[in-house]
Design the sequence.
């Protein structure tokens, strides 16, 4: 009973689909029918490629994503066709060089695709396997290469245009809807960020580390902004303001994390700081309510500035109020006064970042704002992963060519074409083996369903209308399944190969021998791709997690010694992306010790990096004296070299010890320094060193990476 109920619930997408899924299935089927009618009417030699193009670009997502996907697929297709003509013209009678060129081109496309984002990567993938399809389809007669290239290119452009035409029929008032959706998502991110800050003011120092879903949401939203911009063309730089909002929210979370650590470390050793915390919490509560109601932000910005100036006034009073009085020379009083200044300054930075967030949010809400604001977010690339993808694709295709040369199979070109397609597409996924398995499953289902239609249904079909009616069931189920994230990889592959298996031609249906040969080519290409991805650089979650930890640790080392410093928001973005990847690999219970270790460790790396940037700016400027700069240089050198692969007294532990010693020396110096500007800088250095030492000490298990 329980089993049947669970199975029944798992099939809800089929018998009770969502409205968006129904619309997606309807418009995709309509585009398929339009393309099929046009291709048969124009008497194209292989109409199935036009239908397959529809299912390549079809996606149940925002209109901007579909437009971007279609654009880059067309660009990639044209690029692949040009390269195909060049390769065939260069090596028409040299099979070894010809096959080597195909493998190298697909491997190069995999490398570039691994170093790009969004559908630009898909465009390079398309350039790889469209080139391979054209070349391998024309090996029997190189003189037909140009005609085959033009034919395949026409099919893809026709299919993409038809899909975009039908999709536009369902887009009403697109730019206003896109603007509203974007601002709703931004407001949600800001509200969740404010909620995390409020929790950390209560002493929950790692509340942000529990918000991995918020960070994932913000990264995904940041990647999707370019699609919203396509939908909102002519509306100024709303997308740039949206990126600024997300970057500011990330900075807000990092600064709030630092404040919570300061609060935990020194809250029992202050003079009069605690009174301002309830005021700030009350303000944040009112702010969340105002955001939910959509009220103007002018009044709340006035209250925010009042809190900021209160913090600033308290810092100034701490320096000037008791100068010359006996208690000012008291060591206990001086220590507490310094702690007050550290907390006030940390809270002031949070409020300043919150003001930036609210101002950018207000500008992104203004649909009629036409300014010249620009905000670029630099992405970090994993070149090691790119090289692995390229090497894997090259050897898989080279071995496939070797097998073709040995067997002399007449459908070997088809086997290689689909192998190139698989190798190119799989480089887009973190877990390429899992993607390859989904692709193989989808191909097998397409072979079974396609066989049923070819042997049972197609012989009885007498006209195009009946054929399309009979196609509604298999393709409609595939379209609905594509709207389910866990089924999408299998469903998209199934729909693509099902269209290939049916053939669709004016001359008649696919005969049994051709169908079986085509099926064998598709099946063996899937088996070969799956085997190659298990042999060459196989995916292992534990190994990937270790690689990401090493990437973060190397980032810290480089940050402490690199000649040029990145912006703080660039560092936050770099660590956030790695953090989201790590969380995707940890599919265990959210409360396990391992997950907590990775959460806290990733946030610690982010916090350490931000404060390294601050310390290096202090060393670079001329306010501090050389003896203070020398101490900071020692700390930075220790951070640049520690590896923490040993026990308690290894380089990691010595780094923590040196940071604590620097804090002690700076506290003594701050209490006796006469120059006010130097005192302010020393106080800031103490604040940063407290955060660095705490993050290093409490996350030793994450930063100590054992050799295998």
Sequence:
């Amino acid at each position: 009973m329980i089993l049947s109920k669970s199975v029944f619930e798992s099939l809800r997408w089929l018998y009770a689909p969502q409205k968006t899924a129904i619309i997606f299935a309807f418009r995709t089927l309509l585009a398929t029918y339009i393309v099929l009618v046009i291709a048969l009417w124009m008497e194209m030699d292989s109409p199935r490629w036009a239908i397959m193009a529809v299912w390549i670009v079809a996606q149940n997502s925002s209109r901007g994503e579909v437009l971007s996907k279609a654009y880059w697929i067309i660009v990639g297709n044209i690029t692949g066709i040009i390269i195909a003509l060049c390769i065939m013209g260069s090596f028409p009678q040299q099979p070894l060089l010809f096959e080597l060129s195909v493998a190298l081109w697909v491997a190069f496309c995999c490398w570039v695709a691994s170093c790009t984002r969004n559908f630009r990567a898909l465009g390079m993938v398309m350039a790889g396997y469209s080139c391979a399809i054209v070349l391998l389809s024309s090996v029997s007669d190189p003189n037909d290469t140009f005609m085959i290239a033009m034919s395949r290119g026409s099919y893809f452009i026709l299919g993409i245009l038809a899909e975009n035409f039908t999709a536009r029929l369902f887009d009403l008032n697109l730019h206003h809807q896109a603007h509203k959706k974007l601002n709703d998502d931004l407001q949600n991110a800001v509200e969740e960020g404010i909620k995390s800050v409020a929790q950390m003011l209560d002493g929950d120092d790692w509340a942000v580390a529990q918000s991995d879903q918020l960070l994932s949401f913000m990264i995904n939203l940041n990647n999707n902004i370019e699609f919203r911009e396509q939908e909102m063309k002519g509306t100024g730089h709303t997308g740039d303001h949206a990126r600024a909002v997300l970057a500011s929210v990330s900075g807000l979370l990092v600064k709030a994390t630092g404040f919570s650590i300061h609060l935990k470390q020194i809250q029992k050793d202050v003079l009069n700081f605690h009174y301002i915390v309830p005021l700030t919490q009350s303000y944040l509560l009112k702010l969340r309510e105002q955001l939910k109601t959509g009220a103007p932000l002018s009044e709340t910005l006035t209250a925010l500035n009042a809190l900021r100036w209160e913090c600033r006034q308290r810092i100034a009073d701490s320096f000037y109020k008791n100068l010359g009085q006996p208690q000012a020379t008291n060591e206990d009083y001086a220590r507490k006064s310094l702690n007050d200044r550290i907390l006030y300054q940390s809270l002031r930075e949070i409020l300043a970042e919150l003001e930036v967030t609210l101002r950018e949010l207000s500008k992104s809400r203004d649909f009629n704002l036409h300014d010249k604001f620009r905000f670029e977010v630099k992405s970090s690339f994993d070149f090691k992963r790119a090289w692995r993808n390229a090497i894997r694709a090259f050897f898989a295709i080279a071995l496939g060519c070797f097998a073709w040369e040995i067997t002399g199979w007449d459908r070997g070109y088809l086997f290689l074409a689909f192998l190139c397609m698989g190798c190119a597409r799989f480089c887009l996924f973190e877990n390429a083996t899992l993607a390859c398995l989904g692709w193989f499953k989808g191909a097998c289902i397409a072979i079974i369903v396609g066989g049923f239609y070819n042997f049972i249904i197609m012989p009885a079909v007498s006209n195009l209308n009946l054929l399309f009616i009979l196609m509604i069931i298999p393709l409609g189920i595939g379209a609905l399944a594509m709207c389910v994230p866990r089924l999408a990889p299998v469903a998209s592959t199934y729909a693509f190969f099902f269209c290939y298996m049916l053939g669709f031609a004016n001359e008649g249906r696919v005969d049994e021998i051709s169908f079986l040969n085509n099926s064998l080519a598709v099946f063996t290409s899937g088996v070969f791709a799956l085997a190659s991805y298990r042999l060459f650089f196989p995916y292992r979650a534990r190994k990937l997690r270790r690689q990401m930890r090493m990437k973060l640790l190397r980032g810290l080392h480089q940050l402490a010694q690199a000649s040029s410093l990145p912006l703080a928001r660039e560092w936050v973005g770099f660590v956030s992306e790695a953090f989201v990847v790590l969380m995707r690999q940890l599919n265990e219970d959210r409360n396990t010790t391992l997950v907590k270790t990775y959460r806290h460790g990733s946030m610690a790396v982010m916090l350490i990096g931000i404060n390294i940037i601050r310390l290096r700016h202090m060393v670079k400027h001329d306010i501090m004296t050389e003896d203070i700069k020398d101490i900071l240089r020692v700390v930075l050198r220790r951070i640049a070299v520690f590896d923490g692969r040993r026990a308690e007294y290894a380089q990691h532990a010595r780094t923590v010890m040196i940071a604590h010693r620097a804090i002690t020396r700076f506290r003594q110096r701050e209490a006796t320094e006469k120059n006010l500007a130097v005192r302010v800088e020393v106080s800031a250095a103490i604040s940063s060193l407290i955060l660095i030492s705490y993050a290093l000490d409490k996350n030793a298990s994450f930063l100590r990476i054992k050799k295998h």
About this structure: The radius of gyration is 30 Å.
